[in-house]
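Amino acid chain:
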Amino acid sequence: MRRSSGLEKLFGMGSGYVLNFSNRTYQEFVSDSVRRDIYCGKYDYASCSKANLLRRFWEVEPNHVAGKLINDLTEIAKEKGRNPEASSLFGQCRKIAERLLQGAPVNELDSINENLAERDMELLVKSIRSSIDANETETGLDRLHTFVTKFLRRLCEAKGISTIRRKPLHSLLGEYIKKMKAEGAIESQMTERILKSSIGNLEAFNSVRNEQSFAHDNPVLNYEESLLIFNNVMGSIRFIQALDRKRADKIKKESEINDWDGEIPF
């Protein structure tokens, strides 16, 4: 039970509404926030008002999913400033969201970047998230492996690194790290060592995928070890994304400086 008088007051739920959402905008907001359809029937409760749908959502969804939606709704409430008591409620509601978000089984879940503009990647991400939200990480190991392979192939292709089909996952990461080091994107020896240890981890991940996941007719790895693998792999992805983004920003800034002709535009 995650009901809170503070949340209900901040979101204006006493009247049966949630903030100032219409049916359409409410559905769209929940979908954008946590990839759930608030009108799918799963959250039907009593009158099925917007407020009752949200109350039921809080009861049936995992803590981290409820926490994400609460956090995003709190941000909207802050922007709108429609509740006279809102200023005294923001801190309380944020603490509720933070506490619930700590229940996420995979700490780096948001490292799965869905902005890759490809249908197959989108479907992979949805499937992986479903496994995590159901606390069944062991059922998502094969799809996580496929996602990481596709993810690294795209990074390598963007840097002109060969991505022939037979090249294994750990080799892709090894060549990517080598390229980033040559470009000066890796600043410390320790970071390089940590990344190189990830090469060995991904090589072992190949065996897990082939012998201990649903990729084939295998006995599936236990939940605890699957969770450890998920968190380790996702941590590496998060850092690689940040590294690549930082490098891209640096190149963009250097290009803008080089393109400037030195003339003041007035």
Notes: The chain has ten helices and no strands.
